[in-house]
Amino acid sequence: MKKLSVEQLGEILDPAELNEGSIFGALSDAATRFLLDKGVILSVAADEVVFSAGDSGDSFFIVCDGCLDFYKHHEGRRVNTRSVGQGGELGFVAMIALQPHSGDAVAATDSILLEISSLVFSKLHEEHPQDFGLMTLNLSRDMARVINQLGNALIETIAPADAPALRLNSG
Prior knowledge:
By secondary structure, the chain is of the alpha+beta class. It has helices spanning 6-12, 29-38, 92-97, 118-127, 129-158, and strands spanning 2-4, 40-44, 49-51, 59-65, 67-74, 77-85, 89-90, 103-107, 111-117.
């Protein structure tokens, strides 16, 4: 992983394009610039590990360019549960839950990431409260989409379309 400056990022991609992604969507230019200035911009090579299961979840990563794969760890198994492309994020759930990461984030391609620590996220709330609200909504919407996708994958796995009705235990 290599740290990049905002100027170096600008040589690779137009920072204005970030607002086309789901996490930055509708944020003001000032808030986007704040996050770029206060966050950590990283260049990551394909197959490089961004974080591992058990690492501190005190930040999350927004994919500015490229793609990350997430491998979930559970009961000794490691399964790729999703890929996240430009505009998506990984690590927000661990940060909000105040828990270590439950899996590994690995660059599927050469990628540019923006790491947002919990401190920077908190400062966004203080200095750009309206944008903080928009970003929180964007992050929540992204989480909801992932929950729906994982729920659908679970149903396809345990109850294929040709199987009889199945009731999952909710307790």
